[in-house]
């Protein structure tokens, strides 16, 4: 990574949800703010702003990360996926539809981050069991659902129901 001078703006070029993207960012601009305010990726929610709630989770080069703990400059030349990348041309993807079916979302604030973490888990561990799903979810705070519907949705998609 190149060193950026404080107080200046730099162009950050990367791939966002499969498309080339760029925006101007000061060196200390957080990725979460950059995605929302510069690029209009409003599905990335900001909750605690110190990495413990999981609402801002996105995937960088396929790995789930807290976008409130990364600088925008750190994604230069990388691939970033937000919740907007999950929908298919037919609408909701399988995980999104299962969350809807099992009432795994209520206010929906935590849902994008949960979806990004579960989508990584599904790719890397398609046979994950309930304990592993709950382990991944432990990094997310949801105040509305009590996690039951979220877990049931994940178990259905992972073929464990």
Walkthrough of the structure:
By secondary structure, this protein is of the alpha+beta class. The protein folds into 2 domains: 10-85, Beta-grasp domain (Ubiquitin-like (UB roll), Roll), CATH 3.10.20.30; 94-157, DNA polymerase, domain 1, CATH 1.10.150.120. The protein is built from 5 helices and 5 strands. The chain has helices at residues 31-38, 94-101, 111-124, 130-137, 148-157; strands at residues 10-16, 19-25, 57-60, 63-66, 79-81. It has a 5-stranded mixed beta sheet with strand order 2-1-5-3-4, with helices on both faces. The relative contact order is 0.15.
Count of alpha and pi helical runs: 5
- What top-tier CATH class of the largest domain fits best? Alpha Beta
3D shape: elongated
Strand order of the largest sheet: 2-1-5-3-4
The total beta strand count reads 5
β-strand percent reads 15-25%
CATH superfamily caption of the largest domain: Beta-grasp domain
Give me the secondary-structure category. alpha+beta
Rg (CA only): 16 Å
Distance between the termini: 44 Å
The overall pLDDT, averaged over residues, is: 92
- Largest β-sheet summary: 5 strands, mixed
N to C succession of SSEs:
EEHEEEHHHH
CATH topology-level name of the largest domain = Ubiquitin-like (UB roll)
* Helix percent band: 25-40%
């Amino acid at each position: 990574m190149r060193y950026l001078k404080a107080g200046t703006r730099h162009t950050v070029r990367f791939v966002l949800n499969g498309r080339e993207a760029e925006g101007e960012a000061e060196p200390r601009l957080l990725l979460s703010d950059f995605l929302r305010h510069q690029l209009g990726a409003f599905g990335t929610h900001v909750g605690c702003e110190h990495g413990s709630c999981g609402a801002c989770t996105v995937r960088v080069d396929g790995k789930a990360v807290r976008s409130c703990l990364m600088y925008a400059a750190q994604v230069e030349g990388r691939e970033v996926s937000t919740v907007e990348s999950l929908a298919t041309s037919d609408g909701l993807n399988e995980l999104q539809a299962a969350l809807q079916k099992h009432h795994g979302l209520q206010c929906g604030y935590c849902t994008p981050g949960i979806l990004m973490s579960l989508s990584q888990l599904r790719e890397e561990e398609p046979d994950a069991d309930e304990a592993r799903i709950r382990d991944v979810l432990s990094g997310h705070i949801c105040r509305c659902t009590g996690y039951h519907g979220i877990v049931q949705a994940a178990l259905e998609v992972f073929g464990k129901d």
